[in-house]
């Protein structure tokens, strides 16, 4: 059974400091998504830890997680396959690197082919 409201994230990550000179600074950096022409993406083929199956991995996206997920959804729809967005990477099942690179280039992204 999951506990409710008992994590540090619920408290904002800050609980207590014994340092009398400590000042809490809650200025979180606002991350904005860069324009496509300022993004430098890399397209990899990967089959490590995937039971020998190939996946196309796009790395290097700078921006909000929501925008990354939206781009991942576009790429999955384009290729007609499944995939996921994890740790700042878009993972597409299968070898669709050329198709994805062409699509991203048309959208204005700078895409570099990495690996063989």
Give structural notes.
With 116 residues, this protein is α+β, with helices and mostly antiparallel strands. It has one domain: Translation Initiation Factor Eif1. It has helices at 65-79, 97-106, and strands at 40-46, 55-59, 83-86, 89-93, 110-113. It has a five-stranded mixed sheet, with helices on one face. A hairpin with an 8-residue loop joins strand 1 (40-46) and strand 2. It is elongated and about 55 Å long. The model has no long low-confidence stretch (mean pLDDT 85). Keywords: Initiation factor, Protein biosynthesis, Translation regulation.
What tags apply to this protein structure?
2 helices; elongated; initiation factor; protein biosynthesis; SUI1_arc_bac; 5 strands; five-stranded mixed sheet; single chain; 116 residues; Translation initiation factor; alpha+beta; translation regulation
Short description:
By secondary structure, this protein is of the alpha+beta class. 22% of the residues lie in helices and 22% in strands.
* Content-based structural category: alpha+beta
Query: Fraction of residues in helices?
Result: 10-25%
What would CATH call the homologous superfamily? Answer: SUI1-like domain
Count the beta strands: 5
Give helix and strand order, one letter per element, not per position: EEHEEHE
GO biological process, one term: translation reinitiation
GO molecular function, one term: mRNA binding
Protein name: Translation initiation factor
Domain SUI1: 48-108
